[in-house]
From TrEMBL:
One Gene Ontology molecular-function label: sequence-specific DNA binding
Keywords per UniProt: DNA-binding, Transcription, Transcription regulation
Protein name (database record): Helix-turn-helix transcriptional regulator
Residue ranges of domain HTH araC/xylS-type in the record: 154-253
InterPro entries according to UniProt: AraC_XylS_family_regulators (IPR050204), Homeodomain-like_sf (IPR009057), HTH_AraC (IPR018060), HTH_AraC-typ_CS (IPR018062)
A Pfam family per the record: HTH_18
Length: 259
């Protein structure tokens, strides 16, 4: 079952929180996209098929869609929650001249822009704070290169991403679990996502740190231990390298009314 709740809307855009409780491996009936859009996942993961290509969508990979796209969806991992943004053609083309759709790697800066939009929505200032956050989010997302299309790597990388999200430790044990060489696994990540496996694993940990900071976490030493960092300083360095901000600043930025 899928439910959509309007977060904010104006003549040039609409943003929805979409939750799906489906748990099925089969594909849905085709859904035709009616406008320009961006979809980013908050929790969970699902599969999307477009023009014969299957992509696993989760908090680290979102997608851009265009009018007329015929999409199919499957939910083999259970439910998910995502933010779906539809943008008018005029606003879309002022943001980008791009006419390509595709999957987008969601690094920590794009993740932060997404979270700041949701924080602005909670602050209820749609005409200024929400619009400004939305424009920033679109600017960051549409500058991102789409994820590479390498069919031989896609399934392998999808399985590895799921294992990393579940906290699977170490490149060597992960390669053994996936029954591939460590070299092939490492190379597949760079080809498919444009980042190293190490960078991706840290990106996932930073996402979990953002979840905790957004919820008001103040004990950074405990947070570092929980997420497998050597110490608080290691956590701070990694979070800052990925997001551009320290954990303390991020906690403030993710409040409903950031200064």
């Amino acid at each position: 079952m899928r439910a959509a709740v309007e977060l904010a809307a104006r003549p040039g855009f609409a943003a929805y929180a979409v939750s799906c409780e489906d748990d099925h491996r089969g594909w849905s009936a085709p859904e035709q996209r009616s406008g320009h859009g961006l979809v980013l996942v908050r929790r969970g993961r699902f599969r999307r098929r477009l023009a014969g290509r299957v992509a696993d969508v989760d908090p680290t990979v979102g997608y851009v869609s265009l009018p007329g796209d015929e999409e199919y969806f499957a939910h083999p991992a259970g439910g998910d929650v995502c933010t779906s943004i539809t943008v008018s053609p005029d606003l879309w083309h002022t943001m980008t001249g791009a006419s390509e759709h595709g999957d987008v790697y969601v690094d920590a800066r794009l993740d932060l822009a997404h979270r700041r939009l949701l924080a602005a929505v909670r602050g209820q200032d749609v005409d200024y704070a929400v619009v400004e956050a939305l424009l920033h989010l679109l600017g960051v997302a549409l500058r991102r290169a789409t994820v590479g299309v390498h069919d031989s790597d896609s399934a392998l990388v999808a399985r590895a991403r799921a294992a990393i999200a579940d906290g699977h430790p170490g490149l060597l044990p992960l390669a053994e679990r996936l029954e591939v060489s460590p070299y092939r696994l490492s190379r597949a990540f760079s080809r498919e996502l444009g980042v190293s496996l190490t960078h991706y694993r840290n990106r996932v940990r930073v996402g979990k740190a953002l979840d905790r900071l957004e919820a008001g976490e103040s004990d950074l030493a405990a947070l570092a231990v929980d997420l497998g960092f050597a110490d608080q300083a290691h956590l701070t360095r990694t979070v800052r390298a990925h997001s551009g901000e320290t954990p303390a600043v991020l906690r403030r930025l993710l409040s409903p009314s950031p200064a």
